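Here is the promised in-class demo. Please do not try to memorize the tokens; focus on the logic of going from shape to residues.
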């Protein structure tokens, strides 16, 4: 039986199915309410300790998620109702489940996307403690298993040992979820949006996360075909690594710049600058966690990456908060945050925060080849206002005798208004196409919704036509154009992007080798 889905992280996995939604082990009730209270306290402590241990080895994105979970677990407002229920005679497991389910229901009923999204975190927190209460050793998947279910929590992904294979197959999920990004960075095969549920199924399965399907109870012929495809994929990966040290070029010898996207300064620690042409996108949202970052914190982060890159360009994006990236104390609650106060709109509404980032960028610029770009630009006035703020802060630093440098200022092309009428932005230093948002806005298909994932394709002619027109406008007017969305690292999309005229792509570090190899196969 073959079930089709959507590839979220390419690769192949062969192993036993493990049901993520299996009922938890039965809790052994205690003799008194005091013992029940002690049991729940110990389980919460155990869950916190488990998460803290994972944080120690997690990257910045994952650590931020886990730290949020720890903060919630340590919040009396979350556990208080459960302890009150225990005092009235409920067992620890029932009290905790009821208290968390009530909280989850409240979040899911919200008309705010942010709170509905947090319901997933609460379900994860609930299950972490229930597992600790029951000491459910059976909740750990066997080595090499294919984890299947409705969805998977980030903590479940992070505590799984992927060193001996395995994969993920989900009925829901999203190619843009935190887990999907983690899976791609670690090379874990993952398929989302399966057209049929896998609940209650068991036995061996074959997960093809290159094409997006899973085969249950495979026949010998299906196993043979699967293993040939898997071997071919592994061979292509091995061959791709030979391209790492070479400049990227098409089969005809046309040079293509390949830069990297990074989310945290630590991302460059394991990356050789010689393997890429610079940083095409450095996100700065990692700095905006529980507390808003001060100028010195930002300056040190930017300086580290600039010094690592040497004379190669580092394009830093001003904070792109909002949408699916809420920041406490900064972003606002909105009914439709993807079309609301996000990106440059939010920065221009909060000049107290934006000016701090601008000063840090200006001070860091002398330490390398910095370029700065603004996200979610829709009209020329937004760019002009942001550029004017840079000029104001530059003058202030100069008056104080503080070392600084004005970097080239460019914009993200992710709002269709810019892609349709780029002539309004002829004064910018460069364009960087954000394929993720541009595609979702052109196709009216959310990039985090598996149900419409088939619509969300950068290879749709409408999206490629806009990319081609922006690239042509840039070439005719001497404005460099690059692309820094996920499509740049997708071997299947790369030929179409090069045909559209792009010659500068920025990809996740884990996709660097495959992207260069894919470019070498294109006949442009």
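The designed amino acids, position by position:
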């Amino acid at each position: 039986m073959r079930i089709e889905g959507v590839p979220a992280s390419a690769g192949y996995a062969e192993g036993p199915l493990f049901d993520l939604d299996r009922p938890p082990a039965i809790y052994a009730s205690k003799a008194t309410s005091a013992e029940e209270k002690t049991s729940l306290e110990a389980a919460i402590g155990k869950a916190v300790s488990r998460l803290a241990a994972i944080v120690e080895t997690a990257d910045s994105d994952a650590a931020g998620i886990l730290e949020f979970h720890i903060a919630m677990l340590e919040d009396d407002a979350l556990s208080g109702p459960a302890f009150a229920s225990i005092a009235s005679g409920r067992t620890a497991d029932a009290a905790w489940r009821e208290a968390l389910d009530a909280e989850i229901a409240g979040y899911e009923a919200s008309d705010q996307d942010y709170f509905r999204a947090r319901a997933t975190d609460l379900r994860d927190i609930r299950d972490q403690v229930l597992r600790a209460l029951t000491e459910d050793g059976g909740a750990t998947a066997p080595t090499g298993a294919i984890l299947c279910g409705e969805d998977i929590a980030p903590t479940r992904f992070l505590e799984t040992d992927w060193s001996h294979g395995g994969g993920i197959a989900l009925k829901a999920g999203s190619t843009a979820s935190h887990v999907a990004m983690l899976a791609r960075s670690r090379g874990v095969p993952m398929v989302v949006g399966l057209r049929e549920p896998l609940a209650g199924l068991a036995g061996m399965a074959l997960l093809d996360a290159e094409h997006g399907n899973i085969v249950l109870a495979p026949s010998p012929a299906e196993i043979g075909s699967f293993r040939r495809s898997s071997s071919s994929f592994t061979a292509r990966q091995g061959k791709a690594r030979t391209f790492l040290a070479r400049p990227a070029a098409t089969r005809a010898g046309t040079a293509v710049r390949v830069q990297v996207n990074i989310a945290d300064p630590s991302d460059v620690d394991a990356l050789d600058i010689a393997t890429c042409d610079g940083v095409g996108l450095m996100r700065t949202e990692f700095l905006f966690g529980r507390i808003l970052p001060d100028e010195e914190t930002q300056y040190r982060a930017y300086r580290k990456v600039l010094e690592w890159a040497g004379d190669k360009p580092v394009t830093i994006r001003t904070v792109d908060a909002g949408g699916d990236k809420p920041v406490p104390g900064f972003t606002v609650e909105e009914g439709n945050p993807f079309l609301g106060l996000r990106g440059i709109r939010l920065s221009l509404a909060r000049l107290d925060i934006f000016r701090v980032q601008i000063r840090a960028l200006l001070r860091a610029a002398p330490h390398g080849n910095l370029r700065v770009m603004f996200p979610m630009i829709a009209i020329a006035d937004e760019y002009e206002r942001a550029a004017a703020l840079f000029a104001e802060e530059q003058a202030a630093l100069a008056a104080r005798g503080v070392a600084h440098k004005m970097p080239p200022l460019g914009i993200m092309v992710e709002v269709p208004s810019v892609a349709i009428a780029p002539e309004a932005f002829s004064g910018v230093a460069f364009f960087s196409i954000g394929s993720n948002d541009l595609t979702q806005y052109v196709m009216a298909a959310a990039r985090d919704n598996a149900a419409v994932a088939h619509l969300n394709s950068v290879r749709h002619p409408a999206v490629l036509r806009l990319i081609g027109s922006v690239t042509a406008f840039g070439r005719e007017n001497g404005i460099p154009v690059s692309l820094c969305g996920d499509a740049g690292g997708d071997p299947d999309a790369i030929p179409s992007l090069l045909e559209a005229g792009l010659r500068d792509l920025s990809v996740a570090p884990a996709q660097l080798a495959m992207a260069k190899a894919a470019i070498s196969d294109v006949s442009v």
